[in-house]
Amino acid sequence: MTETSELANVGPPDTRLWEQIAQGDHAAFTELFERHAEAVWNYAYRLTASWSQAEDLLSATFLTAWRKRGDAQLVRDSALPWLYTVTANRARTEWRAKRRALRLVSKLTPQDERDHADDVAARTDARRRLVQVVAAIAKLPNSEREIAQLCLLGDVSVSDAATLLGITESSVRARVSRTRARLRDLTPEDNA
Questions:
Q1: What digits encode the pLDDT tens for the residues 80-133?
Q2: Are 90 and 60 in contact (CB under 8 A)?
Q3: Which of 29, 39, 80, 87 is most open to solvent, judged by the fewest CB atoms within 10 Å of its CB?
């Protein structure tokens, strides 16, 4: 996050870039992309535990940013919290679609012929743990899931999350604490 913060201080602030982007300035959009692409990709990877899905989410997030140029609410002159929110929403939508598709495939495929790609994909302990945490986050109620995605996975500060969600900082801190406790209950301790 430090590298991203340092990059954000180089050149015009995000608010000025966003104003230029709203006018259709491709160079300003390129600068915004270069400034935040790595942070958005890292956040997308933490949400999905997949390099290719993180790439897809990065592209989809910035495509959404271009389409919604001028409509975003920037927090503390930074586009990053808004980009994180778009990324989380896209990831949630894709996760639901995959879940529906997997249910359909499992109904159509005999039990002994199923593809074990998930077992192969989760071989390393770190990747398996990340998949478990992402799955646990998906089970949380909406308010706690938002907090987990913003504050725990996205490293968004308590004050920025409060501004973005329109609630007090003490509410954010309480939700972070409650969310951490729920995640401990939802994830096996032997992998911690």
A1: 888 998 998 888 887 777 777 776 666 665 554 445 554 554 455 556 677 777
A2: yes
A3: 29
- On the question of a common fold for 1-114 and 124-192, the answer reads no
What's the token pair of residue 162? 């409060």
- Residue 14 contacts residue 65 (beta carbons within 8 Å): no
CATH number assigned to the domain covering 124-192 = 1.10.10.10
- Number of DSSP helices (H) and strands (E) in the chain, helices first: 10, 0
Q: Domain extents for the chain?
A: 1-114, 124-192
pTM: 0.54
Determine the length of the chain. 192
Q: Which CATH class is domain 1-114?
A: mainly alpha
Phi and psi dihedrals of 24, rounded to 5?
A: 95, 20
For the chain, the straight-line distance linking the first and the last C-alpha, in angstroms and rounded, comes to 24
Residue 142 DSSP SS3: helix
* DSSP H helices in 109-166: 117-121, 125-139, 142-147, 158-165
